[in-house]
Amino acid sequence: MFYTYFWPAHPFILPRVVLQSKVMTNEARSLQAAIEFIGSCYDPSMRQEYFRDIAEALLLQQTGKASLPRSIFNIQAYLLFCVGIYFCGDIDKAMSTLSVAERLALKLQLNKENSILELSKGNAFIAECLRRTWWEIYLFSGHLTAPELHQRFRLYNVDCDTCLPCEDDAYQSGNIPLPMALAEYDAQTKLNASETKTFSSYTYRIDGMRLLSRVIAQNRHTETSSRRYDVELENELIDWLLKLPPSKKRLTREDGTLDEVMVLAHLNIYGYPYTSRVLQLLN
């Protein structure tokens, strides 16, 4: 259930075949429990509360320790559990769980590319998994900054040079290309649409969240945004949409399958009240 329904939109943990070898050695026990909890949310015949209790008990055991385990699997377990309980309606617990995931990620310095290269010990596949984990924490942290939740985007101003994720098919196959830096993407956005490279769907989702976060920050800073700042944001929205490569506007891949990561990227832009109002004016 997890890899069928959840993973295509949030492909940050290891692909199924690779992770199974870790589970067999008990290296990813808490992560496996979190995966089963998420999977139970998609199957009414599974006892969701049972799987939630198991995952929560394992995470509580770790939280109670003087020094939290900081393996990538534990960070991913906290993040998955956070997402699961958030969509089950337990917002307060989701926020506290996300806070643990953020703290552990920062302790491992997943926001630093040099740290990722050191932790992965030259394994490009593991390095890609670490990058995706950092960015997924960043994305969900941003998601929880919706105004009605009164949550501050704690990672928004964190210094970060973590490279961007590659395309998902490359991640699944293990054929990881040389990673691209965020600075390289930002430089590309200043070019004409015809001159820009095509980046991964994950990259456009990340950039959509960066843009959305600036909108939210401005709306919280002043009750009535200045017209000058509104114009700047409108221009950024227009640029984001106009400079998307054709393959990223379609939301389907060449083989006809739905690109769920790109769907979420568009939802970041279209789903927020301010940005949706701007886009209605453009259409």
- Number of separate domains: 2
N-end to C-end Cα span: 38 Å
Give the beta-strand count.
Answer: 0
User: What sequence of helices (H) and strands (E) makes up the elements?
Assistant: HHHHHHHHHHHHHHH
Uncertain segments are none
Radius of gyration (Å): 19 Å
Shape: globular
> What is the mean pLDDT?
84
Helix content: 55-70%
What proportion of the residues form beta strands (DSSP E)?
under 5%
Given the structure, what is the number of helices? 15
| Largest sheet entry | none
**Structural class given helices, strands, pairing?**
mainly alpha
Structure, explained:
The chain has helices at residues 2-6, 16-24, 29-40, 48-63, 72-87, 91-107, 113-120, 124-143, 168-173, 182-188, 201-221, 227-242, 246-249, 260-270, 273-282. The longest helix is centred in the last third of the chain and has 21 residues, at 201-221. The two termini are 38 Å apart. The protein has two domains: 1-179, no CATH class; 181-282, no CATH class. Helices cover 63% and strands 0% of the residues. It is globular and about 50 Å long. The protein has 283 residues and is mostly helical. InterPro entries: XnlR_reg_dom. GO terms for molecular function: DNA binding; zinc ion binding. It holds the Pfam family Fungal_trans. Residues 56-174 form the Xylanolytic transcriptional activator regulatory domain. It comes from Byssochlamys spectabilis (strain No. 5 / NBRC 109023) (Paecilomyces variotii).
